[in-house]
Design a protein that fits this description.
CATH superfamily of the largest domain: Response regulator
Structural class: alpha/beta
Number of helices: 8
Radius of gyration: 19 Å
Oligomer: single chain
CATH topology of the largest domain: Rossmann fold
Number of strands: 12
Bound molecules: calcium ion
Helix content: 25-40%
Length: 249
Amino acid sequence: MRARPHPNILRTSRPRRSGQNGPVTDKGLVLVVEDERPIADLLRLYLTRDGFGVQVEHDGAAGLAAARRMRPVACVLDIALPSLEGTEICRRLREDGDWTPVVFLTARDDEVDRVLGLELGGDDYLTKPFSPRELVARVRALLRRAAGPGDGERVRTVGPVSLDPARRSVTVAGRDLTLTPTEFDLLAHLLRRPGRVFTREELLATVWGYASPAGTRTVDVHVAQLRGKLGDAAGVIRTVRGVGYTANA
Ligand code: CA
């Protein structure tokens, strides 16, 4: 296990913007809810430097209120927080129909299934200790993806599953399916070339927009959820043992 980098060195280099929270910029506002102040400061610094506005909250309830009030373009949520866990913030936003991309900061690898799970609807995660540069890259990748695919893509049908990229809708045997943006993009990518086998690394790179051998579990968890939602049509996505996934041709 690597030693955690000591973040206090950054206490001397403050972000350019004055005040507690930076103003909204062209790139939009990122909400960071993290009670470990050195980590929060570090994220503020890196996100600000990348051109984002940053709102930092150190408490869960304040974080949820800020998410509802300020409509950030993305949320970075620590899990263990005073008053309300990060997972609960995400769950309540999803309950409101708010699908703002969420990156969780987890302390333990075994939390990953839960935070990316159906009930919580997180889009990505980083396990502490992590590199703030990596966090910024993840946020940017999620936002690129949220911007949506190009226009003019045709409807794709495989078996009972039909996906319309323009409307971002999926039906199974004519029944509408509610997918998260991440699930939709994953399915769209697989259906783009039925029969073609995609490795987990490839899916991570194209759907999530980054490459990391450590992140491939993200793919497995989302595939499992997607299959759960597809129900009887789950067989449309086939696991190719030791390689990755494919949509049945
Ligand atoms: Ca914490």
